[in-house]
Design goal:
Elements lengths: L1 H16 L7 E6 L3 E6 L5 H12 L6 E7 L13 E5 L17 H4 L7 E4 L11 E4 L21 E7 L1 H8 L3 E2 L2 E13 L1
Antiparallel strand pairs: 1-2, 1-9, 2-7, 3-4, 3-9, 4-6, 5-6, 5-7, 8-9
GO molecular function: peptidyl-prolyl cis-trans isomerase activity
EC number: 5.2.1.8
Catalytic activity: [protein]-peptidylproline (omega=180) = [protein]-peptidylproline (omega=0)
């Protein structure tokens, strides 16, 4: 009898240790609410590993969503896009972070669809702590797309699975020439 009880406790412990998700999930915690994102570690391993290391290092404590692209705040000749951008860009005493090797959408197979999270960058390999979330489908950010002159696209690495209503609420906040006025504070980003 005693052995059976121990066996049941052991099995219950193993069940409790089972991973909740096959891919890592994180939560972007804002005053407006939480945004849960599944990170595609199986498709974009370098980008996800770097992003998780920034989370674990506490880089995103007191970060912000500071930028918005919408149809009204882009030049008339630009390929239009809709997104919110966040990170530590406006944070004082931000750490110096090395760029991540660029994983294109051609390599990963992750397209910039509604709710996809991606790294912001200038040149390939310069993306690090700044990220954006797509509002609607944004094929111009994929490999070969027209939203970056080098046509290498941006490194998509996950998708919002809960809280797109929060993303859209942030997207609709007041802005001045593409920057939220005031920025939307990110209290923290945590692993789930």
């Amino acid at each position: 009898m005693y052995t059976r009880i121990l066996f049941i406790i052991f099995c219950a412990t193993l069940i409790g240790c089972k991973k909740k998700y096959p891919n890592p999930h994180i939560e972007i915690q804002t005053k407006i609410g939480g945004i849960e994102v599944e990170l595609y570690a199986d498709k974009a391993p370098k980008t996800v590993a770097a992003f998780l290391s920034y989370i674990d290092s506490g880089y995103y404590r007191n970060a912000t969503f500071y930028r918005v692209l919408n149809y009204d705040n882009q030049p008339s000749d630009a390929s239009k896009a809709e997104l919110i951008q966040g990170g530590i860009y406006r944070k004082k005493n931000k750490p110096l972070v090395k760029g991540i090797e660029h994983e294109t959408t051609k390599q990963t197979g992750i397209s910039h669809k509604d709710g996809v999270i991606s790294l912001a960058r200038l040149e390939p390999g310069t993306g690090s702590t700044e990220f954006f979330i797509c509002i609607g489908d944004q094929p111009g950010f994929d490999y070969g797309g027209v939203n970056n002159p080098d046509r290498q696209g941006y490194a998509a690495f996950g998708r919002v699975v809960k809280g797109m209503n929060i993303v859209r609420t942030i997207y609709n906040r007041p802005e001045d020439d593409g920057y939220f006025d005031p920025p939307v504070y990110i209290f923290n980003i945590i692993r789930l």
